[in-house]
Amino acid sequence: MPVPYARRLSASTAKKKKEANSAVMRKKVMDAVVHGKGKGGRTIQSHLEATRTQAYPTHMLGNKSKVPRESYQGWGHIPTVRKAIGNPHIPGRVIKEALYERSAKAYEAEWNAAARKGKLKASAKAGTKQKMDQWAKDITRNITNANARNGQFVANEVKRRIGANDKAGRLTTLVDLGSGAGKTIFPTVEKLSPSQRKKVRVTCVDVSSKDFPTIKKGLLALGVPKENILLIKASFGSLLKNPKLRSLAGEADVVTSGAALHHMSRSETVFSEVQKLLKKGGSFKFWDWSHPTWRAPNLVIAPKGAEVSINGRAYKHNGKIVRGKSGMAFISQRPGKRRNLRSELAQTREMLSTWVSLLNFSAKEKQAFRQWFDRRVESGKPINFESYLKRLQGKRPSKKAEIEVMEAHKTWQNYSRALKGSGMNFGRPVFSPDSGLLVHYSAKK
User: Which parts of the sequence belong to the Methyltransferase domain (predicted)?
Assistant: First the structure.
């Protein structure tokens, strides 16, 4: 007797669900998302690298696996992967794990490429100071101020820890994540006294080692003993897989970072590893960019007074909940309740117009973008930055940007939620008086 169609369909669905949770399916997803191999691999790569073959400046949008994990649905990553591989039951957590792995590899590849380009520039233009034309003064001033403010926060904590460790005859361990050329660690060490600098063990971690000689030279000049300087090449995606960092687990008095932690799409992973690095009572102090611009390709302004969800997928207004369509997210117009906190709308306007400058277009083009942005807001039309970059194709910037690609950022609420998930205690974020995009965080184990 033939099996009824409904039962055959049910058995097929059960089989697909079982397959979706298997190790075999996990490998298929990893191969397709991370390496572009196997069934669906090519489709997924074209989705994640949609702008790669487009002209400057649109291709600067880069790899879309690097958008915050909270925004994966807004960009259509999860349904795209399921459809490309041909199984609608693949768990979202499996796809998110693969996207996280891809984003970590993408950042590492970009920084290594930047290191190689840096060496070529240095040999071709020895002794010249490389800087960007339009944005250098404003952006570097804000970053310098943010690092100085963070340095003061960190130095105060380091001094307190030195006082406690001195009695036990121990060095105070300070770890800087994403050390770059030392712009976060130097302002911290400079605020210590000469005698205090000799009592600190400084560990700098970065995915690229190209600036390690600069950091070492600078720390030595500040009076940090050579034997107290540790430079580690490691990715944020897997800090404690590095044996040198693993040996520091439970040893760090203070961990800091400046404008680097947004490089990982999943903050919880980094924060949980920071928590493991810290001693009981140890401090974690960092600053980063904060804005909602990467929630989705199309940003829609929510009504005045509406309360927008953390991921922007819905808003609540006059007792009703409105959910966004695929490929869109909402932006709040509500002014910030805390000092120096601007509305999400103001943050989005500032960040996107800053990108026009970062891409080395003129101040006139930056103003033209703001006017376009304001007209879209007034008419209730979505903000799609990719469409605006296409308008700039063919227009000449003062020179091509020295940045590799645009970097995705998170909101301060995303970081607060991730800190809470890590088990650390944290205070209210401190917003910069210089820019609505800069925010400082402080947590303790």
Answer: 175-282
Torsion of CA 351, 353, 356, 360, to 10 degrees: -90
C-alpha to C-alpha distance for 203 and 199, rounded to whole angstroms:
13
Contact 259, 150 (CB under 8 A): no
Query: Domains (ranges, CATH) in the chain?
Result: 17-123 (no CATH), 136-290+411-444 (3.40.50.150), 298-392 (no CATH)
Measured distance CA(383)–CA(75) in Å, rounded? 14
Q: In this structure, what is the dihedral angle of CA atoms 236, 242, 228, 441, given to the nearest 10 degrees?
A: 20
The CB density around residue 332, as the number of other CB atoms within 10 Å, is 24
**What is the secondary structure of 176-215 as a DSSP string?**
EES-TTSTTHHHHHHTS-HHHHTTEEEEEEES--TTHHHH
Give me the pLDDT at residue 119, please.
46
CA gap 75, 297 in Å, rounded: 6
Map tokens 């002209």 to a residue: 55
Distance CA 73, CA 364 (A): 35
Phi, psi of 35 (to 5 degrees): -110, -10
Residues 61, 51: Cα–Cα separation, whole Å: 7
Q: Which residues contact 1 (CB under 8 A, 6 or more apart)?
A: none
Report long-range pairs for 165-168 (Cβ below 8 Å, ≥24 apart): 165/199, 165/253, 166/199
pLDDT at 78: 96
Q: What is residue 111's predicted lDDT score, i.e. its pLDDT?
A: 76
Tallying the residues shown for the chain, one arrives at: 445
Cα–Cα distance, 152 to 86 (Å, whole number): 53
Which residue bears the tokens 């992967």?
A: 81
Which stretches within 21-67 are classed as H helix?
23-30, 41-48
Residue 295 has a pLDDT of 97
Over range 387-410, report the average pLDDT: 86
Report helix, strand or coil for 367: helix
Helices (H), 359-425: 363-379, 385-392, 412-422
Q: Which of 38, 58, 39, 61 is nearest to 48 (CA)?
A: 61
* pLDDT one-digit tens code per residue, 80-125: 999 999 999 999 999 999 999 999 888 888 777 766 665 434 333 3
Token readout for 298 is: 């199309």
